[in-house]
Design a protein that fits this description.
By secondary structure, the protein is of the alpha+beta class. The chain contains three helices and six strands; from the N terminus they run βαβαββββα. The strands form two sheets. A three-stranded antiparallel beta sheet has the order 1-3-2, with helices on both faces. The longest helix is centred in the first third of the chain and has 15 residues. It is globular and about 45 Å long.
């Protein structure tokens, strides 16, 4: 979000989970990590926590800072914590505009496409 500098002090996640793939077991990590992350986030939500998984990070800096051995590939990071803001999922009104935004009350709006817009009926 271009109008947000990131979480302020006191709003940052309480914990991070760094999801790694073991290259000595398999070079293909394209499916299981997403399922695992989704399960973790659903469990966190059930406990009243908020979370977000992201792949956009300085992976090399994280690998170095955490002293992760070469056999592991950093795939995703999950941020977890108590939610500070209210998030509202809403239907996309303009097909090309799926940008998140905040209203005057600080409510975080997350546009989502309708199911029939993303499923192909063959």
């Amino acid at each position: 979000m271009t109008d947000w500098d990131g979480p302020e002090e006191g709003e940052r996640p309480s914990a991070y989970i760094v999801v790694l793939g073991d290259k000595e077991i398999s070079a293909n990590h394209f499916w299981d990590h997403g399922i695992a992350c989704q399960s973790i986030l659903l469990g966190a939500c059930e406990k009243g926590l908020g979370g977000c998984m992201f792949g956009a990070s300085n992976k090399q800096a994280l690998v170095e800072a955490l002293h992760i051995p070469e056999r592991y590939e950093l795939i995703l990071v999950i941020a977890l914590g108590k939610p500070k803001e209210v998030v509202v999922l809403e239907e996309v009104t303009e097909p090309q505009n799926i940008k998140y935004w905040r209203d005057e009350q600080g409510v975080h709006h997350v546009p989502k496409r309708k199911l029939e817009d993303i499923i192909i009926n063959l």
